[in-house]
């Protein structure tokens, strides 16, 4: 699945002319857990810095590494080109006349580059600027990035700043013949950056070449590996082998570790007082039990299933609404009387569903909060290992930006909590974005008493969970899967967990 973790509107809003493809490339085969059973991040992302002269082949090396890594977790290529400073009208006029020095370290916002890189390395989201080489200007848009297990930072000055050098796990310098660099630069700048050949040469002789000798080449001494600017396949293979071994050391067996734990303290607080528990079970009225009976019945038609799921979702969301802060509001009634009441006291509120089975709760949320924005997280189980993989992140704006996320309240939606591996991953993702733990309300139809709920509650004690039923069983199984390829049909088995008595696969029964 290409281009993960990118905001969709970014794709729509920016035209190809801004050459955004060079600046950031993302590829992913799913991100395995990056945190431990205590909910805290275990390891930082692996960061590679690639320096070298202009057109030496830095981007090429970065892309070849991604290609050669093959089926690896998410990789982000972050180009230092995105961090050229914002320019005044005069500076832009100088730039268009080839009289602006873009090759001096001061031309790049090193502090911002280091901050964005540090955020990504620490598994937090970041919003990087977008730079237009045609306009010689930083654009007003920014690009949201999150979730990289491997980050490749490339640019002429990536090894220049000591603060930056401290962030890299591996430092690479691309060493290329000057004539080749000049020839490549002429071709590229005329074709892609809207320049004339005379302009490119003038800029090269005035700024690019002297800066390369003074600022870029000297940083080669900080590199762990020097890679040639052409015919570098062997060097790239060596680098990928090293990265793979680093990633293997970080691999985890997360779901296996959190399932089937002792459940004595599972649903209640350590004090044993249910009131202190982070889990709220809807009052088990006959009416509620009636709804669950319809939903559990395998004979229930799809139409009835949808109807009763929507009803139940509304009840759950109404209960969840009680956990939000309210403030006093005075209104004048139609009888011209002053009346003191309440209104929500939140800056931002949104929903995030864990796909696909969180979807059936969305209608309930929209019934209660008509204009709510709902994002999504696609978490899937690796069929072979049973480990959760984060495949797609599409979050509302109030979470994507950290300064908004700290004030956001989030209804996290998933049909059931069984091993709790998906819930764990979704909560960690929200925390990485700066959402406060006690601002997360997890809404679900079912919780498996013998699943991972205990570990989830002890890792994130301030996250409130609202559910309508607690089931006693959780069974690990292998499901046969068939797919067609060419002429034939091929089958394989996939690991799955079944809640008992349960309601079957809620997402499938609702959507299929
Ligand atoms: N090893 C290589 N073999 C062939 N062409 C290359 C190689 N490295 C780079 N190039 C070509 O040179 C040009 C500039 O490379 P690029 O990676 O964009 O440079 P940089 O990122 O260092 O400015 C591109 O057209 C690219 O395809
Ligand atoms: O507005 C600008 C900004 C930068 N440059 C030149 O770009 C190169 C660095 O990019 P590479 O992709 O590493 O080649 C640098 O040498 C600047 O001179 C520019 O021309 N205009």
TrEMBL record:
<dbReference type="GO" id="GO:0005524">
    <property type="term" value="F:ATP binding"/>
</dbReference>
<comment type="pathway">
    <text>Pyrimidine metabolism; UMP biosynthesis via salvage pathway; UMP from uridine: step 1/1.</text>
</comment>
<keyword id="KW-0808">Transferase</keyword>
<keyword id="KW-0418">Kinase</keyword>
<comment type="similarity">
    <text>Belongs to the uridine kinase family.</text>
</comment>
<dbReference type="GO" id="GO:0043771">
    <property type="term" value="F:cytidine kinase activity"/>
</dbReference>
<dbReference type="InterPro" id="IPR000836">
    <property type="entry name" value="PRTase_dom"/>
</dbReference>
<keyword id="KW-0547">Nucleotide-binding</keyword>
<feature type="domain" description="Phosphoribulokinase/uridine kinase">
    <location>
        <begin position="47"/>
        <end position="229"/>
    </location>
</feature>
<comment type="pathway">
    <text>Pyrimidine metabolism; CTP biosynthesis via salvage pathway; CTP from cytidine: step 1/3.</text>
</comment>
<dbReference type="InterPro" id="IPR027417">
    <property type="entry name" value="P-loop_NTPase"/>
</dbReference>
<protein>
    <recommendedName>
        <fullName>Uridine kinase</fullName>
        <ecNumber>2.7.1.48</ecNumber>
    </recommendedName>
</protein>
<dbReference type="Pfam" id="PF00485">
    <property type="entry name" value="PRK"/>
</dbReference>
<dbReference type="GO" id="GO:0044211">
    <property type="term" value="P:CTP salvage"/>
</dbReference>
<dbReference type="InterPro" id="IPR006083">
    <property type="entry name" value="PRK/URK"/>
</dbReference>
<dbReference type="InterPro" id="IPR029057">
    <property type="entry name" value="PRTase-like"/>
</dbReference>
<dbReference type="GO" id="GO:0044206">
    <property type="term" value="P:UMP salvage"/>
</dbReference>
<dbReference type="InterPro" id="IPR000764">
    <property type="entry name" value="Uridine_kinase-like"/>
</dbReference>
<dbReference type="GO" id="GO:0004849">
    <property type="term" value="F:uridine kinase activity"/>
</dbReference>
<dbReference type="Pfam" id="PF14681">
    <property type="entry name" value="UPRTase"/>
</dbReference>
<keyword id="KW-0067">ATP-binding</keyword>
<feature type="domain" description="Phosphoribosyltransferase">
    <location>
        <begin position="283"/>
        <end position="492"/>
    </location>
</feature>
């Amino acid at each position: 699945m290409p281009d993960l973790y990118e905001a969709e509107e970014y794709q729509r809003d920016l035209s190809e002319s801004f050459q955004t493809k060079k600046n950031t490339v993302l590829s992913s085969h799913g991100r395995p857990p990056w945190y431990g059973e205590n909910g805290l991040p275990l390891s930082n992302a692996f960061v590679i810095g690639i320096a070298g002269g202009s057109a030496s082949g830095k981007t090429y090396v970065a892309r070849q590494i991604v290609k050669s890594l093959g089926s690896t977790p998410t990789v982000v290529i972050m180009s230092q080109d995105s961090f050229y400073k914002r320019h005044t009208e005069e500076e832009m006029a100088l730039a268009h006349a080839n009289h602006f020095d873009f090759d001096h370290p001061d031309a790049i916002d090193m502090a911002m580059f280091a901050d964005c890189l540090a955020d990504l390395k620490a598994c937090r989201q970041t919003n990087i600027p977008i730079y237009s080489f045609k306009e010689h200007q930083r654009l007003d848009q920014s690009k949201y990035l999150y979730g990289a297990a491997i980050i490749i930072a490339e640019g002429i000055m990536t090894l220049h700043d000591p603060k930056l050098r401290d962030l890299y796990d591996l430092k690479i310098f691309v060493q290329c013949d000057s004539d080749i660099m000049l020839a490549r630069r002429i071709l590229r700048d005329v074709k892609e950056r809207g320049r004339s050949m005379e302009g490119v040469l003038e800029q090269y002789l005035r700024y690019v070449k002297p800066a390369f000798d003074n600022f870029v080449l000297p940083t080669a001494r900080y590199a762990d590996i020097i890679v040639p600017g052409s015919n570098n396949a062997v060097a790239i293979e060596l680098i990928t082998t090293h990265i793979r071994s680093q990633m293997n050391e970080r691999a985890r067996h997360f779901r296996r570790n959190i399932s089937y734990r002792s459940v004595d303290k599972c649903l209640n607080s350590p004090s044993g007082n249910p009131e202190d528990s982070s889990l709220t079970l809807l009052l088990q009225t006959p009416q509620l039990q009636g709804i669950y009976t319809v939903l559990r019945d395998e004979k229930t038609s799809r139409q009835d299933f949808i109807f009763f799921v929507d009803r139940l979702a509304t009840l759950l969301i109404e209960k969840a609404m009680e956990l939000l802060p309210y403030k006093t509001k005075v209104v004048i009634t139609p009888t011209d009387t002053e009346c003191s009441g309440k209104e929500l006291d939140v800056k931002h509120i949104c929903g995030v569903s864990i796909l696909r089975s969180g979807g059936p709760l969305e209608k309930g949320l929209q019934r209660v909060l008509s204009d709510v924005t709902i994002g999504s997280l696609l978490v899937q189980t690796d069929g072979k290992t049973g480990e959760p993989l984060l495949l797609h992140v599409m979050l509302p704006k109030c979470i994507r930006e950290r300064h908004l996320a700290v004030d956001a309240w989030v209804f996290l939606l998933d049909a059931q909590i069984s091993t709790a591996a998906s819930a764990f991953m979704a909560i960690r993702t929200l925390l990485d974005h700066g959402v406060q733990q006690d601002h997360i309300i997890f809404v679900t139809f079912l919780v498996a008493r013998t699943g991972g709920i205990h570990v989830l509650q002890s890792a994130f004690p301030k996250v409130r969970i609202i559910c309508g039923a607690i089931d006693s069983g959780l069974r690990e199984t292998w499901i046969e899967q068939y797919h067609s390829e060419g002429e034939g049909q091929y089958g394989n088995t996939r690991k799955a967990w079944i809640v008992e008595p349960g309601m079957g696969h809620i997402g499938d029964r609702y959507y299929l």
